[in-house]
Each structure stands twice: as C-alpha cells, then as structure tokens.
Amino acid sequence: MISRILAGPGQGCGDLTVRLLTIKPDGRLPRTEFDFQRVVTVLQGELFFMDGDGAMHVVGEGDVIIIRPYERHHFQNDSSSLARIHIAETRGRT
Q1: I need a labelling partner for 30 at 20 to 30 A (CA). Which of 8, 40, 58, 86 fits?
Q2: Cα–Cα distance measured from residue 85 to residue 30, given in angstroms and rounded to the nearest whole number
Q3: Minimal CA–CA distance to 41: which of 60, 55, 16, 24?
C-alpha cells in the first residue's frame, strides 16, 4: 500500500486530512478502527470492504463509503490491478 497525504494540518487544513491510497494487487489494509469519521471514495479498481458488522461488500470506481467512528473495517484488493481510494477524515470531530 502506498499512502500520500494530499492535504492536512501541515498544509494549513486544521483537523482535515485528505489522503490518496494505492492498494497493490493482492494487497490489503489491516482491519482497524479510528475515533473519527472517514469518507472514502473509490477512484480506481475494485475492492472488498468489510464493514463494522463484518459484512463484505464489493466496491468499485465512484462508490462512496462512510465509516463511522469506532467502526472496525478493512479493505482488500483481490484483483490483479491497482486500486486507488481517496480518504477524507476530520480528527477530533465525530
């Protein structure tokens, strides 16, 4: 996985952080949770997304996922192509 911050506190954005994540084929983001809300947009490719209830969803280009604070979740790329997601999060606000 490659993570790049597009905007954040270091760029004068206060609590807002915007990231671009590239998930390589057969890559995954570990199952985790955060104390803030995240808004994820799939920009490229197809991923499996496990939500806080443990249900798996196939998400693809243009799909938007709202991840609530403390919702355990993860993404995995079981395809042979790169996947890219855009994440916006506001730390300190739920």
Answers
A1: 8
A2: 15
A3: 60
Q: What is the pLDDT of residues 18-58, one digit of tens each?
A: 999 999 999 999 999 999 999 999 999 999 999 999 999 99
Query: What distances in angstroms separate CA 90 from CA 5, 13, 25, 61, one per listed residue?
Result: 13, 10, 29, 23
Nearest-angstrom CA–CA distance, 20 and 51: 20
pTM over 0.90: no
Sketch out the chain's domains with CATH numbers. 2-90 (2.60.120.10)
Count the neighbouring beta carbons within 10 Å of the beta carbon of residue 49.
Answer: 20
Q: Hunting for tokens 């490719």 — which residue is that?
A: 45
